[in-house]
Amino acid sequence: MGAALHLAHAHQQPFKERRPKRTGGGNGGEFATIAHRIYQDARADDKARPLLLAFAYAVTMAPLDEETGVWEAVGKALNPSSYKGYLRELVRADVPRYEAPGYRWGADPLDRRCTGPRMRPHPGGDDDFRNRLNICGAPAQDKVVEKMPGTGWHKNHWFCTRHRNDLARVREQVREQNEAAPDPVPNRGGLLPCYFDSDWVRVYRWALGNDQWEPPVYGYIADDWPVPGQDPVPQKDRLRLVLGGGDLDGAE
Ligand SMILES: [Zn+2]
Predict the structure, then answer these.
(1) pLDDT by residue (tens digit) across 191-222?
(2) Cα of 160 to ligand 1 centre, how many Å?
(3) CA of 132 to the centre of ligand 1 (A)
């Protein structure tokens, strides 16, 4: 897609008067502060962290001139030889969204295991999960999704073919609750806007290659999402970045 993106530093005016070009070694103190915050951020995974650090570097430290905007500096910090595809992949991983349980293969040992009632002990002994949880535990093909009243988060109830009756019973039990459940609170992505200010909806649309994408009803900033069982994450000052004209075009 040929969408043109370019992040220009919001402090471009005063910064330009002072120094027409930044030749590197910019505001190291500010970079250190942001980098510290990023390393402390438990929400940042192995894709988000290098992306956030590259942005922090580009905004505070990277040599910038008419040829090299913030986006180019971010991309080159990530991968000097071939950055555009990688940059887009990392931004796509930061798209704010809800990921339901079972989305990541192998993340949950009880994924696709029947939760139907166990009639007699499994020969595996007391420590066997089937006996501990008192569930069937057979590989399961069918599930009922239960939507939590407060968050809209999903809970999967899996059933094997021998426990079809239990599946039907649970499906009926959760029907009203599911109909009343809110949109799920996002639980993935949305970290870039926690640190940097920009036209992020446009950026995420570019990363997805989808001009129709709309942010979650809870907003696209992860700091703004309620986290069940945790104190709300305090709002932090964001570094202001402004999208200008410019060119991250052909960023396939
Ligand atoms: Zn079963």
Answers:
(1) 999 999 889 999 999 999 999 999 999 999 99
(2) 4
(3) 15
